[in-house]
Task: inverse folding
């Protein structure tokens, strides 16, 4: 069995793992890289010939896990793409939005270059178009949770709840390798227990099912997260403080999951009287609005409390969905109090960049982060305290208050990851620590080594290849 690591090695973006077992070749995830230092990787051909890849197994629908699928199609891939029904519905939305943003950004840059009379050394074009996305979507094949599904006579997959985002899963692959059964386990991104809306992550507790290779994420492999039950307290304090000075709270949110969670939490705060009901809240993201509809359709992924809230039709008051450009532009010159939720969550694309350009220069305002900011992104620059940032080709002074909500991550922390790995009845023969920045992955690898002496534990670099 040949394994090659093609993304999310030494970083948390561009997840992509290649496996060749017998005459069957597959990818687990095919994500887009984010952050300026890695963007060029998106344009490179797939390191393994795309036309020779038989299938892609998707753990979930975030852009850094599914965003390069249309590029894989352009490179020649014509196999099937498997994931839960909710994952595939969200992936359609995310890839369509990605193509739309790329097309708009390319047009914007072409106009700006023409105005500046700048000659670009490379043609300014999108990585892929919306037409490419539609051709990719035609390859989707939904798979039910907890059901062993035959992909070929010699390969089966089983998807189980990962608790990270709607439809997310960790994937068990069982394949025949020259007459020997091999079992691979891909964690994808694991969520935290007791988060709102989603079911808790499951554990792999199958008896008599030895794991030959485990691919484990390590986003928070070097730290513990703050208690989830303190998140609402932090939100309430921040919103009250900024509202008292009549400022705006700008919240960069991921359109899938984080936006819905914030709406859910604001409803809770209003119901408890800890957030004024007259403060306007704008969700300025067509994608987040569509994602919310997908959440409503896939109630099989929701926890009991979310289902009860849906039955009661609990809603946030003074809440506004903005989808058109004209609606978004009405927020350009507004003053507070108010809350603007807008994507993208790392400020690397989308409407949040325009809101930051218009409002980050005022002390009365606050940029409130509620998610991980990858190295190289605009969000990371802001949260690290840069006093000037470049947005859409121009520099802006950062005068707004910068804050972060702790404990709201969708990723399991160090102890939660250890508990998940420890639930596997027999320690895996090989463990590959992936999807984490170098310090986080190395810390988690060393911790696993101290506990699982019989396992071979490796932190692979991009492009590394192993045979098991």
Result:
């Amino acid at each position: 069995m040949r394994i090659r690591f093609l993304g999310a090695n030494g970083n948390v973006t561009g997840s992509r793992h290649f496996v060749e077992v017998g005459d069957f070749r597959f990818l687990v995830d095919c994500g887009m890289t984010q952050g300026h230092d890695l963007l060029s990787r998106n344009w490179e051909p797939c390191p393994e010939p795309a036309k020779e890849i038989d299938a892609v197994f998707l753990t979930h629908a975030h852009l850094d896990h599914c965003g390069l699928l249309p590029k894989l199609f352009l490179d020649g891939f014509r196999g099937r793409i498997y994931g839960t029904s909710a994952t595939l519905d969200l992936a359609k939305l995310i890839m369509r939005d990605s193509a739309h943003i790329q097309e708009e950004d390319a047009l914007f840059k072409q106009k700006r270059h023409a105005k500046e009379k700048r000659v670009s050394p490379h043609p300014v074009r999108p990585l892929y178009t919306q037409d490419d996305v539609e051709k990719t979507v035609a390859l989707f094949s939904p798979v039910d949770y907890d059901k062993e599904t035959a992909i070929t006579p010699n390969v089966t997959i089983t998807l189980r709840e990962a608790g990270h985002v709607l439809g997310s899963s960790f994937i068990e692959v069982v394949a025949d390798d020259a007459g020997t059964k091999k079992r691979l386990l891909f964690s994808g991104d694991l969520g935290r227990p007791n988060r709102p809306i989603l079911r808790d992550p499951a554990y792999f507790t199958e008896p008599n099912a030895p794991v030959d290779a485990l691919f484990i994420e390590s986003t928070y492999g070097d730290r513990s997260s703050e208690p989830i039950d303190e998140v609402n307290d932090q939100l309430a304090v921040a919103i009250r403080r900024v509202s008292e000075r009549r400022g705006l709270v700008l919240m960069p949110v991921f359109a899938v999951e984080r936006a819905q969670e914030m709406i859910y939490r604001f409803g809770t705060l209003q119901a408890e009287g800890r957030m004024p009901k007259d403060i306007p809240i704008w969700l300025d993201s067509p994608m987040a609005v569509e994602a919310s509809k997908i959440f409503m359709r896939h109630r099989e992924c929701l926890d009991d409390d979310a289902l009860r809230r849906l039955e009661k039709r609990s809603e946030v008051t003074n809440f506004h969905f903005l989808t058109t450009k004209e609606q978004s532009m009405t927020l350009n010159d507004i003053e507070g109090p108010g809350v603007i939720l807008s994507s993208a969550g790392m400020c690397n694309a989308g409407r949040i960049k325009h809101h930051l350009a218009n409002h980050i220069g005022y002390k009365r305002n606050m940029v409130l982060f509620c998610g991980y900011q990858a190295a190289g992104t605009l969000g990371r620059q802001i949260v690290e305290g840069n006093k000037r940032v470049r947005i859409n080709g121009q520099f802006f002074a950062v005068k707004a208050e910068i804050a972060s909500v702790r404990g709201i991550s969708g990723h399991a922390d160090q102890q939660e990851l250890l508990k998940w790995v420890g639930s596997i009845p027999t320690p895996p023969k090989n463990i590959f620590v992936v999807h984490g920045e170098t310090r986080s992955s190395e810390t988690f690898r060393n911790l696993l080594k101290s506990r699982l002496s019989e396992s071979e534990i490796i932190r692979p670099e991009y492009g590394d290849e192993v045979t098991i």
About this structure: The mean pLDDT is 93. Residues 228-404 form a domain with the Rossmann fold fold (CATH 3.40.50.10890).
